[in-house]
Amino acid sequence: MLSTTDIEMNPGQREKYSRQILFAGLGEAGQEKLLASSAVLVGCGALGTVVANLLIRSGIGRLRIIDRDFVEVSNLQRQTLFEESDASQSLPKAIAAERRLRAINSDPKIEGVVADLAPQNASDLLDGFQLILDGTDNFETRLLVNDAAIALDLPWIYAAAVGSYGLTMTIRPAQTACLACLLEGEDGSKIAGAEATCDTAGILNAAAGVVASMEAAEALKLLAGKPEALHGRLISCDVWSGKFQSLRVARNPSCRACVRREFDFLEGDVQPHITMCGRDSVQIHERGRKLDLGDLGRRLSATSPEVRSNDFLLRFGVPPYEITVFADGRAIIKGTQDPAIARSLYARYIGA
Ligand SMILES: [Zn+2]
Prior knowledge:
The protein has 13 helices and 14 strands. The chain has about 350 residues and is α/β, with parallel strands linked by helices.
């Protein structure tokens, strides 16, 4: 982990964080370390909004928030940083979260990044932080984060929630089991419901809240310099049945990622350019360069009557499909699950 210089608190900060400083596990020294600390959050949905909210209020020094998506009305039930106006404006989640968090606490440096974490950008986006936080909703991205974290020698906290159930585990390269030890080794069966998603099985906001709160507490321990307090276990909980479990996960002595250092996900051999994104949407990311959205908007206006845009994205309808294009060249095509249709729409309207 990178070392940082602690920040000496001013009287305002001493008051702001007073109830946390009173907690014996942290104290003034822990708070000063936290104020100088940094983390990067991958994904700002049900888990990510809760983790970001808690860490910003706790007084983390610097937080980068990476998210590929925009706010929709169906997010508001559980994604606690967003409001109806964010959904009606289709603001990117990274931007809406950054704005809200700045209003909550002006101490931390907060940076929203509208991007899809991919093999090409993972090392650049994650390097330079002390900790990576999992707010993603799929195992491809988590295994990419796992590879990148091991390659960069950074701790990361895995977290997932679906239905009434959630899981979390803190991963420290070379010290604990990693996600590949868990998923690709003999313990893989411990991950129940790995294939279910919030779009198929639904999700209770309370389940996301419990798991994200545990994730935030583990982050606090690492960032405030209290690694001895980490629970060191895979914790699962079900807020509906009331069943909580905690398991010790052994390192796999021949783990692909943390022992053999074969970073298949980081090297991009296994990540497709087209991914499912919600119940009836496909994300396509085939071009490696940025798009001029103004230019595209003018070009589309000639053929597509309804082109809407904000500072971050552009949206137009090709009935029965709706296409949302981001400046980094990605598009989310709503109304299909068929990659071939998505690819053909992308080629026709956006271009290679
Ligand atoms: Zn491993």
